[in-house]
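Task: sequence design from structure.
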């Protein structure tokens, strides 16, 4: 029973740090949506490709059309 608990705990602990990418294979943050489906399979997207992206960081900051999500853009 202890072994099963340790395995489940390890799985849940590592799953908590996962990243999710929609329409992209090169995820730039914790949650990344590429609306135009135009990001490259490897490497960083260009400035033109980032204009239709939505990226969220683990701190809760979001970036729409920006490469790095920040707390405030003012």
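Answer:
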């Amino acid at each position: 029973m202890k072994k099963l608990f340790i395995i489940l705990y390890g799985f849940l602990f590592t799953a908590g740090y996962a990243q999710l990418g929609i329409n992209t294979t090169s995820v730039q943050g914790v949650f990344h949506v590429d609306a135009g489906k135009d990001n490259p399979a490897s490497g960083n997207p260009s400035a033109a490709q980032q204009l239709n992206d939505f990226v969220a960081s683990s701190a809760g900051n979001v970036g729409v059309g920006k490469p790095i999500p920040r707390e405030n853009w003012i």
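The beta strands are 20-22, 31-34, 53-56, 62-64.
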